[in-house]
């Protein structure tokens, strides 16, 4: 299928065979293309050439073309990859390159999938808890103490690890209970953080994030384009920390005898629904979110101050010019910098009363 | 707030891709050689453990690690250092108190778990290849919840490594007193590798320092953790190397004990 594009200048590239999945949520199939490939190109370049020639309506998400934005995740010859970091020179000359969207997430169109599962899980992951006795600005940390956490900060959120993990890739029903490797490294990052004040991240990871589902087959580590050692440096240490708390008979015995170190088996989760309506006030002052899909717990959450129906400020329209278009360049626009994707009415950090969060120890008596 | 995000519209379908996997490389090769390698070793070890002979070379004090410490009435003079209180029944291995712990140590090892989950249990056989089961609960319930006991088997394995070290040192012997032969090199090599494998264990890495929040307050443990981390990266290689050295050591002792060939002696 398709015409054969001519290269305007220079040495003409070789023709290569591509099979690309085209379709949407109602169905689709692999379609064949013959496309020119030049020396030094990556798969994303070829997809762009296809968009410019044979398939102008081919949908594909991309941004930086430098392996740093995490947008162009797709499956190339069955392997989850960043298309901008997959060189055409890694394929044989006669090899057909098959490109499909990520399998684990719902497809929107062609190579674009709806990865909002990950954003939901991100909201469910408790954020950094500031230490009570140190004011912001006075945080001091030694490099040796933050090194481990820094590895996990390399994450570009391409969600290839989430996509390849068989726990949800092959078992859709586990999505509710399982947060996935990207959020296990987040949990590990904060649990190893020298100033994080939250003490029950281990229990939370096991009970609410589904750490126990992981059977350490290391596919997340294999596909990580940032080469984060997800399994060895985050998941296994978290599993071992869970063992410290939950499966260590000596610790268990000690906690029974001395009645200390007893952390509730976590109660954070949520009812997660959309819409506006009744109002309510959250009195939580801790920076974190709780979200998710456990509707049965919504009532309890409401008692703790979480209110998913809270009236939020009405969104403003994007900052557009007189013609109703986003500016092409800052030079011709009346604002000093690029418009905020969140709207110009939103200031960060968000005020606490706009957050939905219930601390696991919220119901515990204060000491 | 302006949002450019796609609005969720309830449950949506994944891309309808007919092929179960589109991988074109030999993804089946790694699970296949794992099955072959582990099966071969398990068969060899099972045969040897229940063979109940050719495990001790009295002349040079060579004792195979599969029979250490030897605890049954079958153990010959000199081969048992901790008593022979177990009965002479064929189903009882001669090292009945240590072998179960070694087995459990390797069974719950984070590397072997990856290896057999992939190759024997097919969850998944390879990355982006569908797993072979309809339902999956991972290590969230019995019996796989028991994988969390790995660290206790690590403690046991460390003690057993001490016993193996004793065996290797005790084997510097000949009828004339001190002796040194090829068998000693093999025994020592095996023990060094066993220590490397045991210390590189992920649980060990956690216990030695990984559990700390502030490395800066524990400089010695941090250094130890750094060392264990260096070894830990090689845990898979060490897991296979030790299977090899264990089988080699056992075979060498068996061959010398059975008289298939003589030990190459360097001193006495």
Question: What is the secondary structure topology, with strand pairs?
Answer:
The complex is a heterodimer of chains A (367) and B (268).
Chain A: E1 14-24, E2 27-37, H1 43-52, E3 73-76, E4 79-82, E5 97-100, E6 107-109, E7 112-113, H2 116-124, H3 143-152, H4 160-164, H5 166-169, H6 181-191, H7 201-207, H8 219-223, H9 230-247, H10 249-258, H11 298-303
Parallel strand pairs in A: 1-5
Antiparallel strand pairs in A: 1-2, 3-4, 3-5, 6-7
Helix pairs in contact in A: 3-6, 6-9, 7-9
Chain B: H1 29-49, E1 56-57, E2 62-63, H2 99-107, H3 110-119, H4 150-170, E3 180-181, H5 182-199, H6 202-210, H7 219-232, H8 235-258, E4 265-267
Antiparallel strand pairs in B: 1-2, 3-4
Helix pairs in contact in B: 1-3, 2-4, 4-5, 5-8, 6-7
**Strand pairing plus helix content of chain A: what structural class?**
alpha+beta
Strand order of the largest sheet of chain B: 1-2
- Computed over alpha carbons, the radius of gyration of chain B is 24 Å
CATH architecture annotation of the largest domain in chain A? Orthogonal Bundle
Order of helices and strands of chain A: EEHEEEEEHHHHHHHHHH
Give the assembly state of these chains: heterodimer
Q: What is the CATH superfamily label of the largest domain in chain A? A: Alpha-helical ferredoxin
* E-strand count of chain B: 4
**Domain count of chain B:** 1
> What percentage of residues of chain A falls in helices of 4 or more residues?
25-40%
Overview of the molecule:
The complex is a heterodimer of chains A (367) and B (268). By secondary structure, chain A is α+β, with helices and mostly antiparallel strands. Chain A folds into three domains: 99 residues, Ubiquitin-like (UB roll); 143 residues, Alpha-helical ferredoxin (Fumarate Reductase Iron-sulfur Protein, Chain B, domain 2), CATH 1.10.1060; 101 residues, no CATH class. Helix content of chain A is 26%, strand content 11%. In chain A, the strands form two sheets. A five-stranded mixed β-sheet of chain A has the order 2-1-5-3-4. In chain A, strands 6-7 form a two-stranded antiparallel ribbon. Chain B has 268 residues and is mainly alpha-helical. Chain B has one domain. Chain B is 47% helix and 3% strand. Chain B is built from eight helices and four strands. In chain B, α1 crosses α3, α2 packs across α4 and α4 packs antiparallel against α5. The mean pLDDT of chain B is 92. The interface between A and B is large, with 79 and 58 residues.
């Amino acid at each position: 299928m398709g015409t054969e594009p001519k290269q305007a200048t220079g040495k003409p590239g070789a023709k290569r065979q591509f099979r690309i999945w085209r379709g949407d949520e109602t169905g689709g199939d692999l379609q064949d293309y013959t496309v020119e490939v030049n020396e030094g190109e990556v798969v994303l370049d070829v997809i762009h050439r296809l968009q410019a020639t044979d398939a102008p309506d081919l949908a594909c998400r991309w941004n930086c073309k430098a392996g740093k934005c995490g947008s162009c995740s797709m499956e190339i010859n069955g392997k989850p990859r960043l298309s901008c970091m997959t060189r055409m020179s890694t394929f044989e000359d006669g090899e057909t390159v098959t490109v499909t969207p990520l399998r684990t997430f719902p497809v929107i169109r062609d190579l674009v999938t709806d990865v909002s599962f990950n954003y939901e899980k991100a909201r469910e992951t408790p954020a950094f808890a500031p230490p009570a006795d140190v004011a912001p600005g006075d945080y001091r940390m030694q490099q040796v103490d933050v090194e481990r956490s820094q590895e996990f900060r390399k994450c570009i959120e391409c969600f290839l690890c989430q996509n390849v993990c068989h726990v949800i890739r092959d078992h859709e029903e586990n999505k509710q209970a399982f947060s996935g490797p990207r959020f296990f490294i987040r949990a590990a990052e904060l649990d190893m953080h020298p100033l994080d004040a939250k003490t029950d991240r281990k229990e939370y990871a096991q009970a609410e994030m589904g750490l126990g589902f992981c059977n350490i087959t290391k596919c997340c580590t294999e596909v990580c384009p940032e080469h984060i050692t997800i399994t060895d440096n985050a998941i296994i240490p978290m599993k071992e920390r869970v063992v410290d708390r939950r499966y260590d008979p000596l610790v268990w015995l000690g906690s029974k005898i001395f009645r200390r170190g007893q952390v509730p088996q976590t109660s954070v989760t949520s009812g997660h629904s959309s819409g506006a309506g009744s109002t309510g006030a959250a009195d939580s002052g801790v920076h974190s979110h709780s979200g998710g899909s456990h509707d049965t717990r919504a009532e309890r959450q409401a008692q703790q101050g979480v209110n998913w129906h809270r009236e939020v400020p009405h969104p403003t329209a994007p900052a557009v010019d007189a013609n109703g278009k986003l500016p092409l360049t800052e030079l011709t626009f009346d604002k000093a910098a690029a418009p905020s994707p969140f709207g110009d009415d939103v200031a960060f950090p968000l005020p606490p009363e706009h957050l939905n969060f219930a601390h696991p120890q919220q119901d515990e008596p204060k000491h | 707030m302006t949002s450019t995000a796609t609005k969720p519209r309830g449950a949506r379908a994944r891309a309808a891709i007919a092929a179960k996997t589109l991988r074109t490389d030999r993804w089946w090769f790694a699970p296949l050689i794992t099955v072959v390698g582990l099966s071969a070793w398990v068969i060899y070890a099972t045969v040897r453990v229940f063979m109940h002979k050719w495990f001790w070379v009295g002349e040079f004090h060579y004792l195979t690690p599969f029979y250490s410490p030897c605890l049954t009435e079958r153990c010959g003079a000199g081969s048992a250092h901790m008593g022979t209180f177990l009965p002479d029944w064929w189903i009882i291995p001669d090292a009945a108190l240590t072998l179960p712990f070694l087995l459990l140590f390797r069974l719950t090892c984070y590397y072997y778990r990856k290896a057999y989950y992939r190759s024997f249990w097919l969850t998944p056989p390879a990355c982006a290849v569908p797993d072979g089961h309809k339902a999956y609960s991972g290590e969230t319930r019995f019996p796989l919840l028991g994988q969390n006991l790995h660290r206790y088997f690590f403690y046991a394995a460390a003690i057993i490594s001490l016993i193996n070290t004793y065996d290797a040192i005790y084997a510097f012997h000949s009828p004339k007193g001190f002796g040194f032969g090829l068998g000693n090199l093999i025994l020592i090599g095996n023990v060094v590798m066993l220590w490397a494998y045991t210390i590189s264990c992920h649980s060990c890495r956690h216990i030695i320092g990984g559990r700390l929040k502030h490395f800066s307050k524990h400089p010695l443990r941090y250094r130890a953790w750094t060392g264990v981390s260096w070894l830990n990266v090689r845990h898979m290689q060490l897991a296979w190397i030790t299977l090899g050295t264990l089988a080699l050591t056992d075979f060498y002792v068996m061959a010398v004990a059975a008289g298939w060939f003589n030990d190459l002696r360097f001193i006495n």
